[in-house]
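Example record

Each entry pairs one chain with its bound ligand, AR6.
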Amino acid sequence: KDVTRIEWRGVDPSELNRAPACCRPLPQLQPSHEHTVLFRPHVRSGTPPRPYPDAYRDTWDANHVRMPCSEENLYPVDDKNGQKKVQSRWELIESTLQNPIKNSWDLEEAILTYNARYCSKWNFAGLHHFFTEEIDRKESRHFFDQLLPKMVQMALMLPKVCTQAIPLLRRQESHTITLTQLQIACLLANAFFCTFPRRNAQQKKSEYSRFPDINFNRLFEGSTKKSSTNVRKAEKMRCIINYFRRVALKAPSGTVSFTRRAVTALPSWDKSNKTLTKFHGNVYGTIEDQGEGMLQLDFANMYIGGGVLGHGLVQEEIRFMICPELIVSRLFTEVLDANECLLMKGAERFSDYTGYASTFRWNGDYKDVIPRDAWGRKETEILAIDALVFRRLEDQFKPQSLKRELNKAFCGFYGDGTPAVNLPAVATGNWGCGAFGGDARLKGLLQMMVAAECQRDLAYFTFGDQRLCYELHKMNEFLVSQGVSVGDLWLVLQRYREEVLQRKAKKSFTNLYTYIYQVYNDFESSTDEEEEEGAG
Ligand code: AR6
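Structure tokens for the complex follow.
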């Protein structure tokens, strides 16, 4: 087959449901025991909503983010007589950051002043490299003279801007947090200056060991020589600096919601008689650009954001870099369980980029023109689900692995009672098939099954792979024409494991799609395929 000219296959993208057009009107924004709203829910476009309550209320406990500005955030110091005493850590942070910071060494010194325990553990080589090698002296001076003081101001506004305690999104507890973009900027400025207490310890038993890290110290790490790490970190710094430049220039006025969803009523996959929904396969589009108004997948790590502050620079990390407000999820989202997902609605995109992984480059500022909903959120919804890591094809077909991946995607795709006509299509692609080693043909099929179960349409971005686009679409068309149900497919996957994978001793090896065509005895379709190639 000549697949070299394929750009897309399946239904026309204009036929797919998109927000806001397909959605029902939102109910009034109201805090409840399932929804923490950190501001007065009167959203007027153009002005940042006011924090709620008016004055800072301190909560220092195991169920809320421990705030740097809490009066219980204490720091041991030696007094004049060599006696140990405790001092307010926030006062130390305030006084330290208000001293002049003229270059990256001053910044390192400042951060270590209130993180003294990490003096010999943290390395700032990436930061120094960035300000001495990656950008010129003028840009560097501009950063330290102009932007950094504004970032300090933003960080120190914390008790005025984030007045309400932020609950932790704990395992198996569904809950939503809605914050203003300004609150997020203030929290991220604190993360930049590494002020969050108790978030640095690496030990297994430390209080936040089941949470991602949030202080930016890992972003500042690097090597003293030229290295690929330094290049990656430099491009990430460009994204972050651009974000702070923008929010300092004009305070953003919108809001963003983070919903942790734990789902206990999961489908019986073998019994489902749902049939497949509309499919659009796309070779050159990306989830973030062509998935406008759809439920956009974040190919996530169970620790949300994965390596965004470290070395990682694939789909999830890139998304978090161009939409840095997503990073704040790391402050309060405990590691995701198998039946959980995180939905993030409203994050604005600030940067453009080119390349991927080691070739990733910041490509300038990005003006996000997506409209906002009635709660002030950009109409961009991102769904974070973490796939399993696989090293061998066979492992992916174990019934418990298949079920786990179906259930995980189901947690994210399901509409929670919303009628199917009001659900945006899912914009996805090779979920779990890059860093996590999964097989795209299998994962594509599993995602079709889950989309069917949830009665949602699917837009699948194959990231340049024309053959994959061709094969996924052909399979989708075939299954629709045969009226194959989700339950049938579940059984076929089991049979494939038993009849093909577990009898691999035989010389010939039938790939999954060829096998499916054979099972349904569609001779024409099966002869379209190369018979004896490896799966995937
Ligand atoms: N749009 C569509 N498809 C994409 C895009 C995009 N913007 N970017 C990448 N792809 P990967 P995983 C395709 O490896 O295997 C992170 O560190 C491309 O084909 O990011 O689920 C997380 O934090 C790529 O190979 O996802 C996790 O730790 C494929 O999607 C881990 O990676 C998979 O992208 C998750 O790994």
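The pocket of AR6 is lined by residues 286-288, 299-301, 306-307, 312, 314-317, 387, 429-436, 461, 463 (CB under 6 Å).
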